[in-house]
Structures
1.
Amino acid sequence: MASGVNPPPMKILMLHGYAQSGPTFYAKTRAFQKSLLRAFLPTQSVSFSYPTGPHRLIPAEHPSFGHEKPEGEGADTYGWWNRTSDVPIIYTGIPAGLERVAETIRAEGPFDGVIGFSQGGALAAMVASALEGNPARLLPSEYRLSDEVDGICRAVCPNGLVQPPLKFAIIYSGFLAIDSTCTIFFEPKIKTPSLHFLGQLDSVVDESRSRRLIEACISPEVVVHVGGHFVPSQRVNMNALAAFIRICMEKDFENDGESGKK
């Protein structure tokens, strides 16, 4: 990074887990936020956006409550999609979940990176994939997150900027969405720099499911923490997170500087 030149503010999209919401995920990650802010201030400010999934969950109406093991029930429980069948695995409502992300990008973007937890981690990988704009990855129109311009890859934000490919994707207790309609997101593999956190005591998302997502990424980095199904905020985990983000952001900042010299 050039000496004496501070990078622009960093904006991170935060995607909650199944049976959570933007506000509940915000509350659960307050310590996480403070630690990340301390890692970058005063040289760089960081802001977080917490959208809520479009599907409100009611146990009697959604068998997926039993499949995904939600953290809680009540009025503030939402999902990005629902799992309606085990054999074969079928997800419903994914286009609406993707559109909610596109709405957030149009209203609050562009974003530098995405952080997702559990189902939100699975979605984070899909969003990173869609934003790469890889011509070999022919996403159907309903999976492009938007009918405007050419999908989320070119979504116009309020300041007139275009949402570029993400600089990083951080995934906590994520998993590969294995509905047959989702395979297009992972073929070819995701090239966005990714960091995956796995909990040794996670009893909700089996490690094999998380490993399948890791294998769908190019050069992923993996941190295994001693906890369960949550976003860890202990110093050792936050140091790994901050170091990874800093490398991704500095690399992009330096590339922009080189481009400006040409």
2.
Amino acid sequence: MAASGRSAAMKIDWNKISSSLGLKGQTATSLQAFKKRNDDARRKLNALSQVPQTVDFTAYRDTLSNTAIVDEIEGQFKSFKARTYDVGRQIKAIEAFEAQAVKSAEETKGKVDVEMKDLEKTLQNIADTRPWEQITVVSTQSIPYSDEIGC
């Protein structure tokens, strides 16, 4: 599963995510911060995987006069077991980020839909008006006077 997770993480196109979703403000900033943490972790993992993982204890025994220390360190080294970490907290943080991003996207979509309806109504009003050349003084006298529109 780690290999499939690693390959999936490598396939993420961060720029496409930002541009295709039109992310702005806090959401875009949060995504960039997450990308930076992801890149840093990937660099550290690559650096650590290139470090040799074997220790030549016989070379230390030949070099040092106190071989008891080398024996003690070798024993600790052989008994060492790597820790496993519960990544549940990180997954919850990612899910919370995703939920916030979806919520922000839905709010933005709602605002855009309202604005689009308003713009469509305005365009329809413009399309339905009489051409300027057809407006006469007589036709404008039939328009009721109202203080509300500032006439």
